[in-house]
Design a protein that fits this description.
Elements lengths: L2 H9 L3 H23 L2 H17 L10 H16 L16 H8 L15
Helix pairs in contact: 1-2, 2-3, 2-4, 3-4
Length: about 120
Amino acid sequence: MKDELLIKRIRAGDEDAAEELVRRYYIQVMRFCRWQCGIKDLAEDMTQETFFKVFRSLEQYRQRGHFKTWLFCIANVVTLELNGGAIMEKNCNTKFKSKSHIEARCGVRIGAFRYPDVYCR
């Protein structure tokens, strides 16, 4: 089943569709979060927070881009928020060096979360 159909079913209140969406992307989001912070327990928290924010803001998703891209933009912001609003150089492997670089690239303000409209630019 395509992501768009799952999203339509989730918006209609289908809990099975929500579980399927989490099952489909959980491992990928977890790996991304682990890559960002290097700490398994923190990555698990980041993954859960990512899906919490995704479901809380699903009505804002306009389906003009791929859902997976929108999901990973949210995951990126969550990793920044849970790292105290700045990248912990000791534990993170990301290529971004400054908060302003990420704000410019993804269209987000660190510390004042704004859900990505479609995808990171």
